[in-house]
């Protein structure tokens, strides 16, 4: 049997358990009867899905929410898990497939609606199928006194006895009476193991600081806690060694720890840490799994953690004894770039990468929170609380301002350029910076060009960072980090909502020299995409990555962006053999669907208003290429047609149709006319 962590990452793509999940997963997988009370959004489903994968046989999931069941089944299937549902919404084929899977014993999760329990034959069918576990979602529906009462839920207790298998019940709302009723009806009065633990760790002080001189910041934090046991988490192995040394030089007792050390050396550190009072361990996240020292008085992050889940788990190692303990997390723009890059260079499918960017946004939201951090942290896990009085923001609330107008300008710059660009280029547009890329694409003719004079470049960077922190934008991994607007941004764009931003973020001076990067900020996401492709090919062929292409070849590709195989052959490191094996694959990564290389029809319009119009038509077209809902057959206008529309600027559908033809006018007409009228 594989351990839960390996499924957590391989199937679900998560790095860490959320608060509470691990204990529940272990109890359920150990075959115990369990009742878990978790807030909505806390991550209940994982607590039965993961044990289901660890066991032989099928796990039956009973839930009253049909849409939710179908979502979960779809999610599991895309993750490669055999799951099916028996609900009233099924097609005959879907039901057949479920039966076949059950008979063959390949189905891991079977979702059924409670009504199904009443059908004769269900119990018999389940008996034959070899059920490993019954999971009951929304278990409070068994309570006759609650307003969610489902009479069919009363059959579950009988089913459990008939099948004689463990049962795991989940609910978000359970006062003592409901709980007693659940125990009574689902577990026949024999109390299961109950998990009811708030996520809050009120004895932990929460604080974030912008990195300006990380070593000095860590040293001063540690100096104020001299003689107390603490952990410093770092993003790299090398850093654990330098910071440990700096701490020793400052008179602390400190050592480093990372997965690259010999097992024996690691064990020595672990033992010393558990025995010695006042030792500081400077470590990567490899340190922690086996740490159960109750009196760790502080935890500091020298680098931004990977996710909120990781943050919570790492700070949670402090103060297990319930006595006060302090935490400090440093973060800066470089950390964010680094984490984004890690996501983009990973091998996860696109939508998972997008979700990971969203999760990173949530962590940024915590870092750049406007009010009590604990409220934000617990809110992410679904709990609500009062302001805590034990975090840096409760102590010193940040200065804020109404950021609605700047954010709308930024959103409009994103939309007007078809969601094809990263923050760097968008900022150039907003502050009216006439770079070569701007003129080449005619972006100096956009209405948003130069409308953002209220901030300088650094100010706008802070605005974009906070927009990410509010999850208004996410980088699109398929477009090399180009920013896409999320649904959350729509009300602001439409002037139906306002947004408050932090002032201090705008005023921060970048005191540190810029980090050395391999390529410019604009080329970085493409380089990440090329590296991801290289890694996938290398893993497939079981060779080291550099065998496919060395770094410097990828760097040159990212910088020169070859558009044809001929141009690709010019890149150093691309010989005839490699051109044949990999040329097309990497070319696809580079050209993607980005209108990067101007068509001759477009080049003729350079420097004219029609040029900018052409680009916007092209962007609108790309958005509608598969129809308004992305479901239709792909369709596009020829470059010559677009050029004609941009030059003639027809004012009505009739004249537009004459230029495009009926079919194209039907798909693109309205949107094109909008572009033309905006340009007026
Ligand atoms: P609920 O408790 O309301 O049933 P879900 O099981 O639907 O919550 O989970 C809520 C969200 O949390 C989902 O988007 C899920 O992908 C995410 N999630 C669950 N567990 C983790 C984890 N360990 N790490 C990161 N995200 C998680
Ligand atoms: Zn607080």
Word description of this protein:
There is one protein chain. With 680 residues, the protein is of the alpha/beta class. The protein has 5 domains: 4-196, Rossmann fold (3-Layer(aba) Sandwich), CATH 3.40.50.300; 204-331, Rossmann fold; 400-506, Winged helix-like DNA-binding domain superfamily/Winged helix DNA-binding domain (Arc Repressor Mutant, subunit A, Orthogonal Bundle); 524-597, HRDC domain (DNA polymerase, domain 1, Orthogonal Bundle); 609-679, Orthogonal Bundle (DNA polymerase, domain 1). A 7-stranded parallel β-sheet has the order 3-4-2-5-6-1-7, with helices on both faces. Helix 12 links the parallel strand 11 (254-257) and strand 12. Helix 15 crosses helix 21 and helix 24 crosses helix 26. It is globular, with a radius of gyration of 28 Å. Mean pLDDT is 89; it is low at 509-513. The structure holds adenosine-5'-diphosphate (ADP) and zinc ion (ZN). The site of adenosine-5'-diphosphate has 14 residues, from helix 3.
């Amino acid at each position: 049997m594989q351990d839960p962590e390996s499924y957590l990452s391989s199937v679900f793509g998560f790095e860490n358990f959320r608060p509470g999940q691990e204990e529940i997963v272990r109890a359920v997988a150990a075959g115990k009867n369990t009742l878990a009370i978790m807030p909505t959004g806390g991550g209940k489903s994982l607590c039965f899905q993961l044990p289901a994968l660890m066991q032989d046989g099928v796990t039956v999931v009973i839930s009253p929410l049909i849409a939710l069941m179908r979502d979960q089944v779809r999610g599991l299937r895309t993750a490669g898990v055999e799951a099916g549902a028996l609900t009233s919404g099924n097609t005959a084929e879907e039901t057949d497939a479920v039966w076949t899977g059950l008979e063959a014993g390949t189905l891991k999760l079977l979702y059924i609606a409670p009504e199904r329990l009443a059908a004769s034959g269900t119990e018999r069918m389940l008996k034959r199928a070899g059920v490993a576990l019954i999971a009951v979602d929304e278990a409070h529906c068994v309570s006759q006194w609650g307003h969610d009462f489902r009479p069919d839920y009363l059959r579950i207790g009988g089913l459990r006895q008939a099948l004689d298998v463990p049962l795991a019940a989940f609910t978000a709302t359970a006062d003592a009476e409901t709980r007693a009723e659940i125990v009574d009806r689902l577990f026949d009065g024999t109390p299961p193991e109950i998990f009811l633990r708030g996520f809050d760790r009120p004895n932990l002080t929460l604080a974030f600081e912008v990195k300006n001189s990380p070593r000095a910041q860590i040293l001063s934090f540690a100096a104020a806690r001299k003689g107390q046991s603490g952990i410093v988490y770092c993003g790299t192995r090398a850093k654990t060694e330098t910071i440990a040394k700096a701490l020793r030089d400052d008179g602390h007792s400190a050592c480093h720890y990372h997965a690259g050390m010999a097992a024996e050396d690691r064990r020595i550190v672990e033992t010393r840490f558990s025995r010695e009072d006042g030792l500081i361990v400077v470590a990567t996240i490899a340190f922690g799994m086996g740490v159960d020292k109750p009196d760790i008085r502080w935890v500091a992050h020298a680098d931004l953690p990977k996710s909120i889940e990781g943050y919570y788990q790492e700070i949670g190692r402090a103060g297990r004894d319930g006595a006060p303990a302090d935490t400090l997390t440093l973060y800066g723009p470089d950390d964010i770039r680094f984490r984004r890059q890690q996501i983009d260079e990973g091998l996860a499918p696109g939508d998972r990468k997008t979700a990971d960017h969203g999760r990173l946004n949530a962590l940024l939201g915590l870092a750049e929170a406007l009010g009590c951090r604990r409220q934000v942290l617990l809110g992410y896990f679904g709990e609500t609380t009062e302001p805590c009085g034990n975090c840096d923001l409760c102590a010193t609330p940040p200065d804020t301002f109404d950021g609605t107008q700047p954010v709308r300008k930024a959103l409009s710059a994103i939309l007007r350029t078809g969601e094809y660009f990263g923050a760097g280029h968008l900022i150039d547009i907003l502050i009216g910076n006439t770079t070569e890329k701007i003129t080449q694409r005619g972006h100096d003719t956009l209405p948003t060009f130069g409308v953002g004079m209220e901030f300088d470049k650094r100010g706008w960077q802070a605005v974009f960072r906070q927009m990410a922190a509010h999850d208004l934008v996410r980088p699109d991994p398929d477009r090399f980090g180009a920013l896409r607007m999320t649904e959350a941004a729509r009300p602001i764009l439409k002037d139906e909502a306002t947004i408050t931003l932090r002032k201090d973020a705008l005023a921060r001076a970048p005191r540190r020299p810029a980090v050395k990067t391999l390529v410019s900020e604009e080329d970085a996401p493409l380089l990440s995409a090329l590296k991801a492709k290289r890694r996938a090919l290398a893993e497939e062929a079981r060779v080291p990555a550099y065998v496919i292409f060395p770094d410097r070849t990828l760097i040159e590709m990212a910088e020169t962006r070859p558009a044809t195989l001929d141009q690709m052959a010019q890149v150093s490191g691309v010989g005839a053999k490699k051109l044949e094996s990999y040329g097309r694959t990497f070319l696809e990564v580079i050209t993607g669907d980005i209108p990067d290389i101007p068509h001759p029809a477009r080049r003729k319009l350079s420097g004219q208003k029609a040029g900018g119009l052409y680009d916007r038509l092209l962007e609108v077209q790309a958005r509608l290429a598969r129809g308004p809902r992305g479901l239709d057959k792909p369709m596009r206008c020829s470059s010559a047609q677009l050029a004609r529309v941009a030059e003639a600027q027809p004012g009505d559908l009739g004249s537009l149709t004459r230029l495009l033809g009926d079919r194209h006018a039907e798909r693109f007409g309205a949107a094109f006319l909008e572009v033309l009228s905006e340009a007026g």
